[in-house]
Amino acid sequence: MAIANTRSRYGTVAMTLHWLIALAVLTNICLGLYHADFIPDNAPPDMQKFAFQIIQLHKSIGLTVLVLSIARLLWRLVNPIPPLPDGMSPALRVVAHATHFLLYVLIIAIPLSGWALVSASRLGLPTPYFGIFHWPNLWFLADLPGATKHALHPTLALTHTVLAWSAIVLIPIHVLGALYHQFLRRDDVLKRMIPGTKVAEPA
């Protein structure tokens, strides 16, 4: 299989980045929802310790998504993606392009907003990236006065939450679009992102 994209399918680089980011994003959504819904603020000490570990894992995965997403965006800029199938209506093409554009925005904006939220925390705690090293905070937020951080925190938290829920809404739409191509249109849009599948060469 080719490393770069072709007119008929994605290459190994694009496929690998796509599925790694997808797995990381879904994992982080589950971790975020679990922490928000099942660990109360007044939890006992052992549960609070577990919650802290969940948050650290959530942060590490989010930063990984940021790095992989930037790499994927740069790769796409220098390596054009396969064109949409012939016969798609203009409206469907607009929806497809808009969905992909918004997904690219979200997979970069969500971890960036989380990084900003952590950097502006009054606690000033470092982020142990999978326990390997300390990921630095954004200096222009970390160096703010405590009162300014306190005032900024609700806005950053809301931004991160709204972006995350936008992804929760948009991802199923993206999946349904892929299934629509596979089972209703019966074209190769889904298969060209799955390793080992055979796709027809464009005319």
What does this structure look like?
The two termini are 20 Å apart. This protein has helices spanning 12-38, 45-78, 90-119, 139-142, 146-185, and strands at 127-129, 133-135. It is 67% helix and 3% strand. It has a single domain (12-193), classed as Fumarate Reductase Cytochrome B subunit, CATH 1.20.950. A two-stranded antiparallel ribbon has the order 1-2. The chain is elongated and about 60 Å long. The model has no long low-confidence stretch (mean pLDDT 94).
Can I get a quick summary?
The protein has one domain: Fumarate Reductase Cytochrome B subunit (Up-down Bundle). The chain has five helices and two strands.
CATH C-level? Mainly Alpha
Strand order of the largest sheet: 1-2
Mean pLDDT: 94
Shape: elongated
Q: What structural class is derived from the secondary structure elements?
A: mainly alpha
Low-confidence stretches: none
How many alpha or pi helices?
5
Amino-to-carboxy terminus distance:
20 Å
**H/E series:** HHHEEHH
Rg, rounded, reads: 20 Å
CATH-defined topology: Fumarate Reductase Cytochrome B subunit
Helix content: 55-70%
The total tally of domains equals 1
Give the percentage of residues in beta strands: under 5%
CATH architecture classification: Up-down Bundle
Biggest pleated-sheet summary: 2 strands, antiparallel
**Number of distinct beta strands:** 2
Which descriptors would you attach to this protein?
elongated, 203 residues, two-stranded antiparallel sheet, mainly alpha, 67% helix, Fumarate Reductase Cytochrome B subunit
